[in-house]
Amino acid sequence: MNTNYIYNMRYVLILCLFVASCSTPIEKALNSSSPLITRVTDSIDKYEVQILFTQIDSTDSGEVQFTDYSYGLNEQNYFYPASTVKLPVAVLAAEYADAREDITLDTPYIIDGDEELHSISDDLRQIFAVSDNKAYNRLYELLGRDYINSRLREKGYTQTTIQHRLATPEAAVNARKTIQFFPSYTAESIIITNKEDKDLIANNVVGNKKGLGYIENGKLVNEPMDFGLKNHFPLQEQHHFVKSLVFPNSFETSKKFELSETSRQRVLKAMKTLPRDAKYNQEEYYDSYVKFFMYGDVTTPIPDNIHIYNKVGFAYGTLTETAYIEDTQNDIRFIISATILVNDNQIFNDDTYEYEQIGIPFLAQLGREFYEQEKERKE
């Protein structure tokens, strides 16, 4: 055999091994040969993909060590966060209850225009198990956007802006509804008359005008859709929010929300709750109904050893998820956040998006790629 050929092959092999060793976990995942990944990476700029991935290890002293990787991050590249905004509002509602002496997470309440009793704890269950919009809107009524945004700024979330309710014609109205809490059958009720919020202030994020057109009142408007008055929750801040909620001892006290440990654990329990555990119909609300990473493209049950503490959002063609994933059987844990735009015709609000064909399968496979990498790294 030609010695030059042998030398060249050895050189190529060494080069391939070197390149592989220098690749980040995200690069490795995106270089997957899976068609669920390649049909996105073949035109990745079109899909406006952003990814954050955190490896989690424990030091000899027992401290948690994070190794962070990112791809395509750009706080000034706007994407619509959809239901991911329910996460900070849920946490702030739990903090609000903790700060009061007269109500708890379980205190029943009723809101104007609704005859049904609710509780913050039940709202948390609905928000995380099936991403219920009405539960989020009730907590929005309780807190209001002025309080929500002020509190987020105090804790370092300087780019996030919660502007409106979800899936309602009254999404952005300033006035909020009165809420009445019932601490017990004997005590007097607590009436919270909410003040009007201030007028919306447009976000100045670059790229908040998107697409070629949009549908309004059933008609096509041939100009980019303006998202300037919509919610904004950049991926970096979503990722940090989950990281600090799961591992509070790794962050400065001044930057953590003032949740009691009991309330924090209840929020985390709600985050990992599957629809079947929350008593929802399993045929309609299967395990991965709002858990896209790893399992979003299947309807089979998620294994009991896999816990996914997450929040997804999907609307206007944008799919986003942030999750802390742990495998209690194989000692695997990591945090992943990603967003992808699947709006091939570039027309917004027409309900013609490639969620099932491209977006959810991509996020599912992305989660599996990271899981397999971590499994191999721990072995």
TrEMBL record:
Protein name: beta-lactamase
Principal EC category: hydrolase
EC number: 3.5.2.6
Family classification: Belongs to the class-A beta-lactamase family.
Reaction(s) catalysed (UniProt annotation): a beta-lactam + H2O = a substituted beta-amino acid
GO-annotated molecular function: hydrolase activity
Gene3D superfamilies in the cross-refs: DD-peptidase/beta-lactamase superfamily (3.40.710.10)
Domain Beta-lactamase class A catalytic: 70-337
Organism annotation: Dokdonia genika
PANTHER family xref list: BETA-LACTAMASE, BETA-LACTAMASE-TYPE TRANSPEPTIDASE FOLD CONTAINING PROTEIN
Pfam family, one: Beta-lactamase2
InterPro entries: Beta-lactam/transpept-like, Beta-lactam_cat, Beta-lactam_class-A
Annotated signal peptide: 1-28
Keyword Metal-binding: no
Keywords recorded for this protein, A-Z: Hydrolase, Signal
Top-level taxonomy: Bacteria, Pseudomonadati, Bacteroidota, Flavobacteriia, Flavobacteriales
